[in-house]
């Protein structure tokens, strides 16, 4: 049985004034029926993890370097995230693949670094609109997960997030059949590569314009084990609606 996960990606949003959202989540979900994770900007990880202590809310990073230390100005390592209180790290988000030219090989190296430091890697994949319209979605996603996931992935060290680029921050969402098709495909790929045990244990999140209003129907799709949420994770009220939908799924 895969435990459901509601993960929030705050991207480059949030200052100390936003930490009250964690208090609101803690209060609303003292014993949630799913896992709750917030990935704030790196500047807030330590304060947020201290604030979340003793609650079910977990804190994660949005990226890490593949090396542990060294001359990489502006970067942050998996060990540093762990030291700051993170339990998870998002890797290979489409915004990083686009803005920072991250390849599948780079994402894979980062996932290995995350695992070495005991962080759960949330590895993102997803197609552009052009790729979808060209009928290449499954081939593209298949290549991304083959190249970005290291060997030895299990349900405890890895989560996969399917995020169609054209659905991120746009209010556009694939049909439930389209989401189901890709999630079933990813599940089959994971089982083929990692075996039925690990392949069936790795959780698959859907991401792309998930809101309280559409969450329940998305969570009803087979092989959707939760969501990676951007905009609607910034306010505890909105994110709480998504968490509640997941608890009831
Ligand atoms: C994301 O960027 O991970 C995301 C899913 O964003 P949004 O929910 O805002 O579409």
Question: Could you outline the blueprint of secondary structure elements for this entry?
Answer:
Elements: E1 5-9, H1 20-28, E2 35-39, H2 42-52, E3 57-61, H3 78-84, E4 88-91, H4 94-99, H5 104-116, E5 120-125, H6 129-133, H7 137-148, E6 158-162, H8 176-201, E7 203-207, H9 212-219, E8 226-229, H10 236-247
Parallel strand pairs: 1-2, 1-8, 2-3, 3-4, 4-5, 5-6, 6-7, 7-8
Helix pairs in contact: 1-10, 5-7, 7-8, 9-10
The protein binds phosphoenolpyruvate.
Phosphoenolpyruvate is lined by residues 9, 163, 168-169, 207-210, 228-232.
Features:
249 residues, alpha/beta, TIM Barrel, eight-stranded parallel barrel, 10 helices, 44% helix, globular, binds phosphoenolpyruvate
Beta content comes to 15-25%
- What small molecules does this complex bind? phosphoenolpyruvate
Helical proportion, percent range: 40-55%
CATH topology: TIM Barrel
How many strands, which pairing sense, and closed or not: the largest β-sheet? 8 strands, parallel, barrel
Order of helices and strands: EHEHEHEHHEHHEHEHEH
Q: Going across the major beta sheet, what is the strand order?
A: 1-2-3-4-5-6-7-8
So what's the overall shape?
Answer: globular
Instruction: Label the CATH architecture.
Output: Alpha-Beta Barrel
Number of helices: 10
Content-based structural category: alpha/beta
Radius of gyration: 17 Å
Class in CATH? Alpha Beta
Report the span from N to C terminus.
13 Å
Query: How many beta-strand runs?
Result: 8
The tally of structural domains comes to 1
- Overall residue-averaged pLDDT value: 98
